[in-house]
Amino acid sequence: MPTSNQQLSSASLTLTTEELSAIADGIAAGDPGAFVPSGTDRRWGIVVATEAYEAWVIAWPSGTGLAMHDHGGARAAVRVVSGRLRERFHAGGAVQLRWLDAGQAQVLSADHVHEVINLNDTEAITVHVYSPPVGDMGFRVDPEIDLRTTPST
Ligand SMILES: [Fe+2]
Fold this sequence. Notes:
- The protein has one domain (about 15-135): Jelly Rolls (Sandwich), CATH 2.60.120.10.
- Helix content is about 15%, strand content about 40%.
- It has 3 helices and 10 strands.
- The protein has helices at about 5-10, 15-30, 135-140, and strands at about 45-50, 55-60, 65-70, 75-80, 85-90, 95-100, 105-110, 115, 125-130, 145.
């Protein structure tokens, strides 16, 4: 069990959504695509990982996405660099829908639960900054959506 000092230390390392947004904006202003390996599946690269936050760049080819998931209690800032994603998320006891367009940014509360999918023809690139860090497992265990291999009915 952590001592009160450890709890204080851990709490002080959690960034605000404003700080997360500023980091996401800075990464988006550079060459975020350079952090993502080449390929045709959904893929990602880590830009920076600290005790306080992690920053990722994710590439979403057409038809790929993530089914409903949370972020393990982390708050986040998400910035769309290119392309367009559809997000469905839980809010007010219902599932809401919004489109995340290139240039747009969103902040996600620590209890945000959402599905994200690229329904457009072109690949989307996004920057994600999480605090506290979600770790690599956060991406590996999320359920993938791949409409390219899912038969339409
Ligand atoms: Fe997410």
